[in-house]
Amino acid sequence: MASSSESERKEPVNEQMVANMYGALRSELNQIYSKITELEMEASEHSLVISAIEPLDPSRRCYRMIGGVLVERTIKEVLPAVQRNKEGLEEVISRLNEALEKKKKEISDLEAKYKIRIRKPDGEAKEEDSGRKEGAAQGVLVGPAGES
């Protein structure tokens, strides 16, 4: 069944299917970007915790949230666990970066194969609107917001 969906993905029948496939790939790319960003923030938080508790006495008490429950541990117990979690996050981030590069290549291949160009209607509309607004605003005097 996976091979039939791959063949559909490789050879779309019409322009609408190409557009849908391209949109789905762009959506997946955005999801990967957001997940990477989220995990990088978590890894950064882990680094902050590690740098804060490393110089402290290993027998000192500290608290850690595990599955929504706050537990009391010593720094000696918590520090290795936080370091392992950070390493795991970094591994996942590297895998996601590899997936991101594959997805970018897949999108660029699709763009090249079907000669896909992205239209920027916002930029064109802004240029047209700004020209109209300048013409319409000529001769209008506006005072400071505080005056009546």
Topology:
Blueprint: H1 2-10, H2 15-53, E1 61-66, E2 69-74, H3 75-114, H4 121-137
Antiparallel strand pairs: 1-2
Protein name: Prefoldin subunit 2
Keywords: Chaperone
GO biological process, one term: response to cold
Give a short synopsis of this structure:
This protein is mostly helical.
Report on the structure:
Helices cover 71% and strands 8% of the residues. By secondary structure, the protein is mainly alpha-helical. It has one domain: Helix Hairpins, CATH 1.10.287. Helix 2 runs antiparallel to helix 3. The termini are far apart.
Name the average pLDDT. Answer: 83
Q: For the terminal residues, how far apart are their CA atoms?
A: 71 Å
Low-confidence stretches: 1-8, 136-142
Oligomer: single chain
Structural class: mainly alpha
Strand order of the largest sheet: 1-2
CATH topology grouping: Helix Hairpins
CATH class: Mainly Alpha
Main pleated-sheet profile: 2 strands, antiparallel
Series of H and E elements = HHEEHH
> Could you say what the CATH architecture is?
Orthogonal Bundle
Q: What portion of residues is helical?
A: over 70%
Content of β-strand: 5-15%
Strand count: 2
Radius of gyration: 26 Å
Query: How does the overall form come out from the CA principal axes?
Result: elongated
Count of spatially separate domains: 1
Number of continuous helical runs:
4
